[in-house]
Design brief:
With 251 residues, the chain is α/β, with parallel strands linked by helices. 40% of the residues lie in helices and 29% in strands. Helix 2 packs across helix 9 and helix 2 packs antiparallel against helix 10.
Length: 251
């Protein structure tokens, strides 16, 4: 009887060890889901896009299972810090202000800001020509801050919860132009809705570094993500994802 009990104890310990050994680490990816082609909700209700493809490739390199959680842009950093997800892949610009709230990985692409407006409009970027125009931008973005700093006293700035809503007002004629990330604008210009619009002028800010955000002090995860990013660049995974969305290199 004692030997039988001993066998059961050994078997139970072995099962427990095996379960622990094969436990898979899981992480949650945070994103907005309203910023095509970088992150959006598809017809199946799933978050997809360049950001998510990159994030999932990083998860694969780190040998972890990842799920996706969406959040409104305005509250996305507080949601990360409230531990609703583990890292943030949402085309977030690395700024000094944001770096006081979160830590960033190395950049995973570089963007810029550029205006779009109707093809028929005489849209010049000097303050005399811009005076009185109504320009849209997404709230709490680099584009919004740039407009306030450079044309705050010249144009009427309208802020939106998403870029998509700014485009809707541009289409309807309620805006004279929209300032947004040039790659996001490029995507919209390819659509039927953007057919009568075009880029106006050169990019006004062309060195916008985009990073993945983690909670302050989570250096272990940040470095794991950095290592994985280097690996997907070196083995061609990054290029495959890039070419799926763009005919040019965004890295």
């Amino acid at each position: 009887m004692k030997n039988y009990k001993k066998i059961l104890l050994v078997a139970a310990a072995s099962l427990s060890f095996a379960t622990t050994s094969f436990a898979v680490e899981t992480l949650k990816i945070g994103t907005e889901g309203a910023y095509p082609p970088f992150n959006l909700i598809d017809s199946n209700g799933e978050a997809v896009g360049f950001d998510l493809d990159i994030a999932k490739a990083l998860c694969e390199k780190m040998d972890v299972e990842c799920s996706v959680v969406t959040s409104d842009w305005d509250g996305i950093i507080p949601a990360l810090n409230a531990k609703k997800f583990d890292f943030l892949a949402a085309s977030m610009s690395i700024t000094e202000e944001r770096s006081r709230a979160v830590d960033f990985t190395d950049p995973y692409y570089t963007n810029g800001l550029q205006f779009v407006a109707p093809k028929s409009s005489d849209f010049k970027l000097d303050k005399k020509s811009m005076k009185g125009r109504v320009i849209g931008a997404q709230r709490a973005t680099i584009a919004g801050h740039w407009l306030e700093d450079n044309f705050g006293k010249t144009v009427d700035i309208k802020f939106y919860d998403t870029n998509e809503n700014a485009y809707l007002d541009l289409e309807s004629g309620r805006l004279d132009g929209v300032l947004a990330d040039k790659f996001v604008n490029w995507e919209w210009l390819q659509s039927e809705a953007g057919a009568n619009f075009e880029f106006k002028g050169d990019p006004v800010f062309d060195n916008d570094k985009i990073g993945i955000a983690v909670r302050k002090g989570n250096n272990e995860l940040r470095e794991r993500l950095n290592t994985a990013l280097k690996e997907i660049v070196e083995d061609g995974t990054y290029k495959t994802i890039n070419d799926k969305y763009f005919p040019f290199n965004v890295y």
